[in-house]
Amino acid sequence: MSADRPVPRGGDRRPAGPRTAGAGIRGGRPLPRATEDSSRRTAAPRPGGGRPAPRIPRPAPRPRGAAPSALRGAVRLPGRVREAWDRPLTAYYVILGAGLLITVLGLVMVYSASQIKALQNGLPSTFYFRKQLLAVAIGSVLLWFAARLSVRLHRALSYPLLLGSVFLMCLVQVPHVGVSVNGNTNWLSIGGPFQLQPSEFGKLALVMWGADLLARKNDKNLLVQWKHLLVPLVPVTVLLLGLIMLGGDMGTTVILTAILFGMLWLAGAPTRLFTGVLAGATALGVLAIATSPNRMGRLHCIGASDPGTGCWQAVHGIYALASGGWFGSGLGASVEKWGELPEPHTDFIFAVTGEELGLAGTLSVLALFAALGYAGIRVASRTEDPFVRFAAGGVTTWIMVQAVINIGAVLGLLPIAGVPLPLFSYGGSALLPTMFAIGLLISFARNEPAARAALAVRGHNNPLTGAVRRTMRRYARRRPSGER
User: Cα 323–336–346 angle (5° rounding)?
Assistant: First the structure.
């Protein structure tokens, strides 16, 4: 270093390198300390050489009292859920999605729960699954047909459906024509292994015919008189109940009674009338249970814990649920279906679901039924058409009450009534009218004025052609590959 050159302060005699050549001096004047420190952080080389690391800006301080974004999102979540639920097509998509998911999951569980039962009966392991798959295929056609029909055509079908159901239920009581299953004579043989239970179609007939009857009386302002509320709705319901009770099916009579009460409640029946009908139905139900040792035995099995008391099925249903844990033993790994549960694929399929899929699986099934019921209530409450209101309320009451009776029996909270879990249990006679009823709800949901306008805008009146139309519009908006 030359003697004429001043020595830097502090005695630093290091040669000026890339770091110190202009780091602290600009035009002979020292830079401020903050500028010097920031330039050092910016120009500091990484260990081992290479390009200097980029400067990472510090985040701006959050104003005092400001909530984090996650907290703000949680606060806004109820409003967003409410906004999504209020959209015109929400009920349409919820009914369609929940109904199909319950049906598909039921197919899977029927396949898993019925294999051992089929082998014990000397049948192929997929026998019951193939029959259920055929019923789902036919039911899908019925669902599509019901979803495409107008309200006027649904009302026109109600009377033929009621007359046909009554005729078939009368035919069941003819000797050597009706077939007995598990002590109940409520079946008709239609050839080969296929049987038909007309009382399942009686539920659908009562809903559609009762809704049409009440809608016509509502249009004439006759529902303010109690006799028009009861006649002929209650006598026809009593006729259906009598034909079903002749075969000994107590569970189906409870469901039809619940449908009647639900429709009377929607029609605005006064409390005195409603209480009187309920008291009469309760008295008849108590009499029917007290006069049947089989029904009294089922009543005694509520909350039973010892299979030696004659409550074998109820107790092993609890065993299946208890051994499932949080996530179950795995699909197909149920132990109780190996002969311990007499009806693993029909009345007690929910117990097998709890054993194989655990608490997560059973809660998923319950959530799907809850969503389906809530969407049905929404359709019934938002419509201006009295027929739609009565029919949607009747279908929702039917499906929800039947699900509660089945699941309550599996949990040991209700007596075993012998009714299947809707859309889930094995049985084509129960599945076909239920899928038609789901199509009925879909038709009502998509025919709301706001939903119809939204479907027209989106081109979803036919989902397939609507999707093709939207795809073609997207391709038409694209520029050619060589265009700039």
Answer: 115
Mean pLDDT of the chain: 82
| Residue-wise pLDDT tens digits, 390-413 | 999 999 999 999 999 999 999 999
Give the CA distances from residue 330 to residues 117, 242, 357, in Å, rounded to whole numbers and listed in that order.
19, 44, 6
How far apart are alpha carbons 182 and 184 in whole angstroms? Answer: 6
User: How many Cβ atoms from other residues are within 10 Å of residue 151's Cβ?
Assistant: 17
Q: Which amino acid is at 374?
A: Y
Given CA atoms 214, 216, 219, 222 in this order, what sign does their dihedral have?
negative
In three-state form (DSSP H/G/I as H, E/B as E, the rest C), the secondary structure along 328-361 is CCCCCCCCCCCCCCCCCCCCCHHHHHHHHHHHHH
Q: d(Cα 368, Cα 105) in Å, to the nearest integer?
A: 11
d(CA 332, CA 349) in angstroms, rounded, equals 13
d(CA 380, CA 362): 27
Angstrom distance (rounded) from CA 40 to CA 34:
10
Categorize the per-residue pLDDT at 34 as very low, low, confident or very high, splitting at 50, 70 and 90.
very low
What are the φ and ψ backbone dihedral angles of 120, each rounded to 5 degrees?
A: -65, -30
pTM: 0.79
pLDDT by residue (tens digit) across 317-374?
999 999 999 999 999 999 999 978 888 999 999 999 999 999 999 999 999 999 999 9
Domain boundaries, the chain: 102-157+248-448
Q: What angle is formed at CA 439 by the lines to CA 104 and CA 188, rounded to 5 degrees?
A: 80
Write the pLDDT tens digit of every residue in 222-271.
Answer: 998 888 888 899 999 999 999 999 888 889 999 999 999 999 999 988 88
**Per 3-state DSSP, what percentage of the chain is helix, strand, and coil (rounded to 5)?**
65, 5, 35
Cβ neighbors of 38 (< 8 A, separation 6 or more) are 55
Distance from C-alpha of 240 to C-alpha of 438, rounded to nearest angstrom: 22
Q: What is the pLDDT of residues 39-54, one digit of tens each?
A: 444 444 555 555 555 5
Helix (H, G, I), strand (E, B) or coil at 28: coil
In sequence order, the β-bridge partners of residue 30 are: 25
The token pair that represents 23 in the structure block: 């780091």
Cis peptide before 232 (omega within 30 of 0): yes
Question: For residue 426, which of 115, 183, 201 has the smallest C-alpha distance?
Answer: 115
Residue 14 · residue 1 · CB < 8 Å: no
- Judge residue 18's burial from the number of C-beta atoms within 10 Å of its C-beta, 0-12 exposed, 13-18 middle, 19 or more buried: exposed
Q: Which of 404, 399, 362 is nearest to 377 (CA)?
A: 399
